[in-house]
Amino acid sequence: MRRLSFFLLPILAVVLLFSCAKPKVKLSYVEPPREYRGSIRKIAVLPFESRSMDGRLFSAEVSAELLKVKVDGKPYFKLVSRTEIDRVLSELKFSSSGLTEESARLGRLLNAEGILTGVVEVSRSVVPYREKRFRCVKTEGSGLIKKCVQSVEYYVSCRRYELELLMIPKLIDVERGEIVYSRKILKRVSDRHCSDEGRSVPSFSWMLERATAEAVRELVEDIAPHRVSVVAEFIDDDEGIGDRKNFEKAIELAKEGKISEACGIFESLKEKTYALLYNRGLCAELEGDLDSALELYTEALSLRRDERVEEALRRLKVRKGEL
C-alpha cells in the first residue's frame, strides 16, 4: 500500500499544480509613443556626437530600429537615406552641433519633416576586489561517504566590469525649427569575473552591444508605437454571484485557456460585483472594445479597490493615449 501511495505522489502533485493555476490570459497590443506623439514621420537620422564611441555606427543602430517599426503592417517612419545625408552634410559643411538653428534649411534640403540626432557617451571601469573561498583540508569517512571536518578560508582576486552608456537624443521639428523631444537615457551593464572561474573574462564589446540595444529600444518606444505583451488575470472572487456554479465553470474554462467560452458565461451573468465587472471588462479588452472595457473597469473599481483592476485601468488609459 505504501509503495502504491509513493508512485501516486507525482500524479497528485501535477493535479494540484493545475488545480491551483491562476485564470490568466496573455494580452498583446500596440501602445502609443511614450513621449513624442506628434506627426513627424519622415526623419533624417544624423550622426550622434560622441568622444568615446563611433557616433555614425550608433545612428545606424537607431535607423535600423526605426525601420522595424510597423503599424497595420506598414512602416511607421520613412527615413532619409544615409547616402543623401552624407552628400548634403559634406557639400554644405554642416556639423551636428547647432542643428536646431539650421534644421529648417537642412530639413528642406533633405526633404525631411524631422531631424533626429544627439549626444552619446560611454564609460568603462574595472574594479578589483577579493572574494572569500573555503577549501576542505581534513575529512572523515571512506569511499563515497566523506564528511569535511576541517576547512581553511582563502581569498581569490576578482574584478567587476562596469559599462555606462548615456544618450541624450533630440528630435527637431524642421518646419518649426524646435526640439520637440529630448531626454537623458542612461543604461548600465555590469559583470564580474574571479581568477578561479572557468569562464572567460567579460567582454566590453558585448556589454556595449547590450547597453546600445537597450538605449536605442527605449528611444524608439519614446517616439514610436510599440508592441507590448502582458499577462492579465481573471478574478475568481464569487462573492455576490447568484449563479456560482456557472461563474466557477467560467473560471475553470479560463484556466484551461478557453477564453471565448469563459467570456460567454461572464456575459450571461448580470450581477454587478467588482469581480464580474472586471472579468467582463477584460473580455471586452480582448475583443478590442476599449470603450466598454474602460467603463466596466471604472465601475468595478468604484465597488472595490483591487490592484488588478487598477493595473487594467492604467493599461487601458495608456492604450487609449490618455496617459
Model description:
By secondary structure, the chain is α+β, with helices and mostly antiparallel strands. Helices cover 43% and strands 31% of the residues. The protein folds into 3 domains: 30-121 and 167-225, Rossmann fold (3-Layer(aba) Sandwich); 126-158, no CATH class; 234-319, Serine Threonine Protein Phosphatase 5, Tetratricopeptide repeat, CATH 1.25.40. The protein is built from 10 helices and 10 strands. β3 and β4 form a beta hairpin. The relative contact order is 0.13.
Give a brief rundown of this model.
With 323 residues, the protein is of the alpha+beta class. The protein has helices at 2-19, 55-68, 82-92, 99-110, 204-223, 244-255, 259-268, 274-287, 290-303, 307-319, and strands at residues 24-31, 42-45, 70-71, 74-75, 78-79, 114-142, 145-173, 178-182, 185-194, 226-233. Strand 7 and strand 8 form a beta hairpin.
Walk me through the topology.
Layout (H helix, E strand, L loop, with lengths): L1 H18 L4 E8 L10 E4 L9 H14 L1 E2 L2 E2 L2 E2 L2 H11 L6 H12 L3 E29 L2 E29 L4 E5 L2 E10 L9 H20 L2 E8 L10 H12 L3 H10 L5 H14 L2 H14 L3 H13 L4
Parallel strand pairs: 2-5, 2-6
Antiparallel strand pairs: 1-10, 3-4, 6-7, 7-8, 7-9
